Amino acid sequence: MTQPNKKTIGDIEITAVSDGLLTMTSDRVIGMTGAEVARRMGRTDDKMVLEVNSFLLKRDGGYDLVDAGCGNTAGPTLGKQADNLRGLGVDPTTIRRVFLTHFHPDHSNGLIDGAGQAVYPNAEVFAHADEAKFWIDDDLPAGATEMMINGKRNTLRAMAAYPDRLTRVRDGEVLPGVAAILQSGHTPGHTGWLFQSRGEGILIWGDIVHLAAIQVAEPDAAMTFDYDPANARAARRRTFDRVAADKLFVAGAHLDFPGFGTITRNGSGYRYETA
C-alpha cells in the first residue's frame, strides 16, 4: 500500500517532504476582505497557515528534488527539509538534481545552510532561463519591493554555493520524462515540472495555488506576492485546464500535506480533490 506521504507515477516514487509551516495574514489575498478570506479558510482570525512542501523523486536509480525549502531564513517553524530528508534515510549529498519552480525564499533559500554552504553539494540545479535572468542577471525594476530586494540578495547568496551547476532551461523536455512548463506570473519564470512514466504524469506546480479553499473555486484570486497578478491568474486557469484535460496528478508546495491531488472540471469552474 502506498504510504500517505508517497505517490507512485509509473516507475517514479514521489515522497512529499515538509519544510514546515508558514503563517501569513489574510490581506495577502487581492480584492477579498479579511472576513471573507477567514470564512473560506475556516478561521476566526486573519491568520493563514500554509504548508511548505517539497518533493523527493526516486527515479532512474537515484534521487532528485523539486524545490529546497527556506533553510534558516524564515524562523523556527520552517527550514526542516534537510533534516526531514535525513529522517527518510536520504542523505542530502546523494541528491543528483534540484528542480526549482522559482527563486522565492521558501523554495530556494534551503539550497544553503547558515554558513552559506551547499546543502546539496553534488546536485545540479535546474531553473527556467527567464527566472534566472530576472533574479540573477538583471537589475531589479524601478520601485522594487523590499521582498524583491531581499529575494535577489538571497538568490545570489544561494547560487554562489553552486558555481557552474545552474542549468537554465526553456519550455519542453529537459531530461527523458521531465519537462519544464513555464507558468509566468507569480514570478517571471515560475515553472511547473512535469514528470511522466508508463503513461502516467504528475505536474509539480509550485505556487499556482497558495489557498486551495479559495483559488480553485475562484482562479482570479491573486496574491500580493504575485509579481504579475494578471499573468498569475492566466497561468492558474491555463494550468487547471491542462491538468484536468490530460488527467494529470498535481503536487503543490502549499497544498495540505502531502500536497498530492487532482483538478477536475466543475461546471464552468474547477474542483480540487486530494489523491
CATH homologous superfamily designation? Ribonuclease Z/Hydroxyacylglutathione hydrolase-like
* Helix content, binned percent: 10-25%
CATH domain class name: Alpha Beta
What is the first-to-last residue Cα distance?
14 Å
Strand line-up in the sheet with most strands: 1-2-3-4-5-6-7
The quaternary state of the protein chains shown equals single chain
Order of helices and strands: EEHEEHEHEHHEEEEEHHEEE
Q: Any low-confidence stretches, pLDDT <50, length ≥5?
A: none
Main beta sheet: 7 strands, mixed
| Number of contiguous helices | 7
Strand content: 25-35%
Give the SSE layout.
Elements: E1 6-9, E2 12-25, H1 34-41, E3 47-59, E4 62-66, H2 81-87, E5 95-99, H3 105-108, E6 124-128, H4 129-137, H5 146-160, E7 166-169, E8 172-175, E9 178-182, E10 191-197, E11 200-204, H6 212-215, H7 229-246, E12 249-251, E13 260-266, E14 269-274
Parallel strand pairs: 4-5, 5-6, 6-7, 11-12
Antiparallel strand pairs: 1-2, 2-3, 3-4, 8-9, 9-10, 10-11, 12-13, 13-14
